[in-house]
Structures are given as structure tokens and as C-alpha cells.
Amino acid sequence: MSTLTTETPDTPALSPAQLRERKDRRRALGLLTPGLVWMALFMVLPMAMVIYVSFWTQTTFSVNSTLTTASWERFLSSATYLGAIWTTLRIWAIVLVATIVVGYPVALFIGLFVRNKTLQTALLVACVIPFWTSFLIRVIAWRPMLGTEGAINMILMKLGIIHEPLTFLLFSEFSVLVGMTQIYCVFMVGPITFMLGRIDVSVIEAARDLGASFGTIFRRIILPLSLPGVMVGSIFVSVMVLGEFATAASLSGRKTNLLGNIIVSQVGSLKWAFAAVAGVVLTIIITAVIALALRLVDLRKEM
Amino acid sequence: MLTLTRVSRRYGDTVALDGVNFTVPENTYMSLLGASGAGKTTLLRLIAGFEEPDRGEIAINGERIDGQPSHLRDIGFVFQNFALFPHLSVSENVAFGLRHRTHDALKNETEIKDRTEAALELVGLTGFGHRAVSAISGGQRQRVALARTLVCEPRIVLLDEPLGALDANLRARMCDELKAIRERLGVSFLHVTGSETEALTMGDKVAVLADGKIMQSDTPDLLFNQPMNAEAARHLNAWNIFDAGLCGAGQGQIAVRFDQIDVCAEGQVPEGRLTLGAKYLTGEFNGPTALSFFRADDGTLLQIIDHLSQPRLPQLDEGARYALHFAPDALRQFHGAA
């Protein structure tokens, strides 16, 4: 038989609440560590290195660690490179608007008018089917479509709408825009569909019952409630388009130079310092765009 | 006056409503009682215009409204889950209809503000206008939903189990307030519920919906004391329904109210009373009342209610047989389909 004691133990033990708290803290730390280590090693450190390298001295075929602002001065005073920034921003803006214009109605259909969850998932998967092939094939597939002897020109000529093949379709900024919009549209459709799918049907019915027409309901209820989705999609598309180089390289016929293309060609000719400058500029632009987007919609509140 | 004439609605092979004939008079609090899945919500959705009937007519004051788009019907609908606009504040929610309705939308901000505040005051939410709808309690959301509907002055207000999401205390309070608000406005309410107490408490009239038909539509006391058929009686949760043969009272189904059956030892039944034998199963103590459960010879479950202030039942032993007896005039006989 054991004796029961009501005395408090001599050693001051931690209370269960303190033990629990300590355990929770240890678990949180354990969950965070891999990500933090990864980010520190492969993002923070390289970023710092890129900024450092951008101040190195670049000679024709080599680079040494004497600090100078020469690369920055050259970059910021060159019409070509400033032009590339402008082209990058312009293409980003157009592609962003195009993905919203094309993607929103699709998302509206899948998220709001298809109320069967299985069908919704099937349609979203269908949107991703192009991604079952490689990026390059998706981009290059536009050539037989848009070329002077491509499908679109053939059809338009057969229909008698045009008599000369349209040349602006391929190897122009237009083809870059078309290619990018097609590739990145799904990143816009996904988040918007998700937000629209979360709207309670009875909320829309309530608005109708209060006398609002569909147009009013869309403007006052559906659009505001789906804005966080638009914003998340915009961030996805922005990050990807701003860093793009492959679509422009293969569809513009080297006529369109984005910041990404400059980095690729500078690295190719071993001009590390200069590539680093372009890299830093690109990172600043992307950071600014995301900061702006997060300013516009408070995701923490809306999600 | 809202009139439904032979309204039917089916979903695939399931018949939700099967020729409903139903009238909600002017200035009336109408309760619609039905089990879950009986088609109550479907009925409201047809009236509001979220769905259309397969057959039949829906009319307000003789003017047909079925086929009209729901935003032009001028009918108020209070949702079970409130369906507030999550991104708008309380007063913006209430003002939504005034501001955005297709017909007769208000442009004058002062008038919108005045009417919104009056509606919030009506439901007892003065001063809550600036709050976010996520920052108020369930009962307050219910009031916002009500104010949002009432501010548009609809021709009739449909309430879909409006108290279902509230806890018991709040439910009792909202019952009184709903009645008071309706009396002040003079508009008809059609209140759908699965609870017979709620239906009887609230309604000036109570209709019972079962098997896609209106079984009976009467004042609460008439419905409670004289249900016209077994279905209506079953929904009141106060009537034992059993085969007349059990007590030798002829054929067909009969009903006797829980509180009108007495119990005694077998063979001691007083003169002039109808009787049947049954086995005592168990008892259930509910506070002011106690329920006793009996099993009749053909397996029918019978319930007897005993009020603590006037106990009628003898000491009962579980598993023993007793004689249940009642006055012949306590019996209601139903004809036709059960």
C-alpha cells in the first residue's frame, strides 16, 4: 500500500502550463529550423553576395574584388539597360492585366457557377494540363501558331479577311505577350477560383433578395470578396513575369530585352559584376511590386 | 395575402413539394412546422424566387410572382445562417437593399442613414452600425439579418429556421421580439421551423408540412387540440397514434393526447373508459413534467405525460404490464390515409 502525501515537493517543479509552453516553443523552433537554415544558406547569403559582387571591378574577361561603382554607373546611364527596365515593367503590366481579363471570367465560372466540388476540381486540373509538357514546348508551340505561314495567318487568309500574312504576330512583343499570358494565366485562375469558391451561395441569394441585379451583386459582393484572390494571383504572375527570360528569348526573335535576358547574356559573357547589378535592380523591382500589392489588400484580414 | 396553388417541385426522383395549397393572410404571424427534409426550405425558396416550381402558381394579392426574377419580387428572406455580407459593416449590411436595389434605389445618403438607424433601433442594435459583422455575437447577427430585410419594407418576410443557430436563452428572447417587431410593422411573417413549441408559441396560425403537402393550417390551439389527420398529430409531439383495434374502438388510426391517458394495474380499469394493455419501458424526468414510455402489444410506442403538481400515475415497475385507459371523448379518429 502506498502512502498519500499532501506535502509539496522540495524541488520547485515547473507548473504544467510552463511545461506545455516550453514544449510548444521547442516544437515551433523545430518546425522553423529547416526553412530558416535553407533560406539563410540559399537566399540571404547569395543575395548579400550578389549585392557585394555588383560593386566589384569588371574587366573584359575577369572580375576582381576591388570595390567600385563603375558597373552601377554604366547600368544607370545606359539607354539600353534603362530601356530594358521600361520594357520589363511594360510587359509585366500588360501581361498582368491580360491574365486578369482572361483568368477572372474562367475563375468566376469554375468557382461560382460550378457548384459541384468534383467538377470544380476537374476543371481546375484541366487548366493545368498544359503544364504536363515542358516549358519550352509550350512556348515554342506558339511558333507554328503565330508564324507568317502559321495557323492563324492561314485561317485568316482562307477566310479572305487578310491578303498578306500578318507579320507582327511572331517574333515581336506581341508574341511575347501572348505566350506569357497563356503560360501564367493559370496562376491567376487558381487563387481567384479558391476565393470565389469560398463565397457562401446564400450571401449572393441574400443580395438578390434585397433587390440587387446581377451586375450590382458582382460589383458590390463578388468582386470585393474575390479581391484577395486577384491579389495573390497577381503576386504569383508578377514574380514570374518580372524574372522571365525564356519566353522573350524564344518568341521575340531577340527583339525584346527584359532584365532577365540581360542577366542571362551578361552571365554568358562572364560579366559577373554587371549581371549582379541587373540582378539587384530586378530584385528591388519585384520587392516593390509585392510590397505595393500587399498594401492594396490586407491579406491577413481578408483570408 | 400570399397564395400558393397546387405548387409542386421535384429534384430528380425526389418529390419535395407535391401540390401544396397554402395561404398566408395579411398581417399574420404564420408558422410552418415540418420535420427536416419535409420541403420547408424548398417552399420558402420557391416563394423568394431562388427556385421555380415545376407546377402550380404563387401569387401575392392575386398577382402572380412565380417566374419573376427574385430581385424584383419584393419579398424578404432571413437566412438560417444569416448570410451577412462579410466585407461590409453592420450599417452597410442593413443599407445594402436601400442603396442597391434595382427598383426605387435611394440616392439620398441622409435618408439611407436615417432609415438604417431606424431599422437598427427596431431590432435593438442602436450604436452597432460601425461594427464589422465578424465582431458581433450570433444573436446580434440574427438581428442584423432581420434589420437588413425589414428596412426594405418587403410585402412578406420569410424566416428560414431563424432561431436554429441561437442558444436556448437567446431563442426564447428572440421569439418575443420577433412577434413584437412583426406587430409593430404589420407585415406578414412566414416562419419555418422544425420545433413544435416554437411553431405554436410564435404563430397566429400554424401550418404543418409533411410529405410535400400542407396537412393542416389552423390557429395553434385548434391545431393542438384537434389535429385533422395523423400526420398533423404526429408533428405536435403530444399525441399517441395507434391502431383503434388495440382498445377495441373499431378500425383505423386513432390518437390520444399524452396527458389524457391514465395508468392502473390490469383489471382495475374504472367504468366507461377505453383501455389497452401495455408494458412499462422507462421514464424520463424533464423537470416540471415526467414522461413515461409504454410498449403496446403490437409494438407501438406510447407516451404518457405527468405533471409534477398533479401526479396521476401510480408507482411503475420497468418491464411490468399495466392497463392504460382514457375517456372515450379524448379519442380522435382519423379517416382516410394515415
From TrEMBL, chain A:
Topology relative to the lipid bilayer, per the entry, is: Multi-pass membrane protein
PROSITE patterns xref list:
ABC_TM1
GO BP annotation list:
transmembrane transport
Keywords, alphabetical: Cell membrane, Membrane, Transmembrane, Transmembrane helix, Transport
Task: Tell me the superkingdom of the source.
Answer: Bacteria
Q: Which GO terms describe its cellular component?
A: plasma membrane
The record's annotation in CDD domains points to: TM_PBP2
Ranges annotated as spanning the membrane: 28-55, 91-114, 121-141, 174-196, 217-242, 272-297
Q: Where in the cell is the protein located?
A: Cell membrane
Describe the location of the ABC transmembrane type-1 domain by residue ranges: 85-293
Q: Which family does it belong to?
A: Belongs to the binding-protein-dependent transport system permease family. CysTW subfamily.
Q: Which PANTHER family match?
A: INNER MEMBRANE ABC TRANSPORTER PERMEASE PROTEIN YDCU-RELATED, INNER MEMBRANE ABC TRANSPORTER PERMEASE PROTEIN YDCU-RELATED-RELATED
Q: What is this protein called?
A: Putative spermidine/putrescine transport system permease protein
Origin species, per record, is Celeribacter neptunius
Automatic annotation (TrEMBL), chain B:
Please tell me whether the keyword GTP-binding is annotated for this protein: no
Keyword Transport belongs to the record? yes
Give an example GO molecular function.
ATP binding
Tell me the GO BP annotations in alphabetical order: quaternary ammonium group transport
Tell me where the transmembrane regions lie: none
Q: Which UniProt keywords apply?
A: ATP-binding, Nucleotide-binding, Transport
Which residue numbers delimit the ABC transporter domain? 2-236
InterPro entries, from UniProt? AAA+_ATPase (IPR003593), ABC_SmlMolc_Importer (IPR050093), ABC_transporter-like_ATP-bd (IPR003439), ABC_transporter-like_CS (IPR017871), P-loop_NTPase (IPR027417)
Identification of the protein by name: Putative spermidine/putrescine transport system ATP-binding protein
